[in-house]
Design brief:
It is a single chain. The chain is globular. By secondary structure, it is of the alpha/beta class. The longest helix has 22 residues. A 6-stranded mixed sheet has the order 2-1-3-10-4-11, sandwiched between helices. It has a 5-stranded mixed sheet with strand order 7-6-8-5-9, sandwiched between helices. The chain has 2 domains: 166 residues, D-Maltodextrin-Binding Protein, domain 2 (3-Layer(aba) Sandwich); 98 residues, 3-Layer(aba) Sandwich (D-Maltodextrin-Binding Protein, domain 2). Helix content is 43%, strand content 19%. About 3% of the residues have low confidence. It contains 11 helices and 11 strands.
Length: 321
Amino acid sequence: MKPTRILAVLLLCFAAAVQAQPWPAKPVRLIVAYPPGGGIDVMARQVAEKLTGAWGQAVVVENRPGANTIVATDAVAKAPADGYTLLFTTDATFSINPHLYAKLPFDTQRDFIPVTMLVLLQQLLVAHPSVAANSLAELIDLARKNPGKINYASYGSGSQPHLSGEMLKYKAGIDLVHIPYKGISLAVPAVMAGEVQLTFSGIATSLAPLKSGRIKAFAIGGPKRSPIWPELPTFTELGFPEVETHAWFGLFVPAGTPREAVTRIYQDTKKIIEEPDFRQKQLVDKGYDPVGSSPEEFSKYILADRANRGQAVKISGAKAE
């Protein structure tokens, strides 16, 4: 047998041996759809470190921000469906983008398997202290008396704050002016500085300025009040259940990934979320609602969430920028 043929046979045998090994048999890439330093990146790195220990294989975080999460999502859609490339992203990818973009380079329902939702992050409606209202009812009354004179910040057309603001306008029958900023980190500072009057923000981002009195809050999204700011009522309590202000963080793999890998990723990630110390200090204390849903539960949730966000996008008239 020729040396080249012998080498080819050996390589085939090696590849077959690797495939026969229980997953994971090599390092895993965790592609994050956002830049380094933000809340989702921090959580991704914490989870990756713990999964590295659980699997005995390196879980390498790779940030691929860009095009409203499309860059990272497309990279994972085109990756081998072998369990060694994971996507860590938010509701923007699977619930909002399909309504904002006429065409995407992937099909969010066909090309991915939802593995688990790690957390929900409910957002608050916050205001500069100078706004002459101390409750949602008072704010709505103020807006009705001053149409077009109260503004709110978002981080772009179709972003969570934009959709929430437009849904509140629609349901309350008020006229608020949308002021889009270029980044997720700019809206709350803009409210604190008095550049704009309102915005929707995660409780983790809002907690310090709330405690110091630099902003005030009117309501929070979600089915229940936050344990770290329990005096703040929910939009549902106040008669506006349609004002969805949440974001979620979740793990996905390419369609066709072996069930063994999907199940292992889900189960081991759920264990991390349920670790008492991690759950309390890294999630609950920072305003996250731990979830750890199964692939089936997550898939069902996304279908409903996508439908709800579709209604919000239609009402807002938002288009991809």
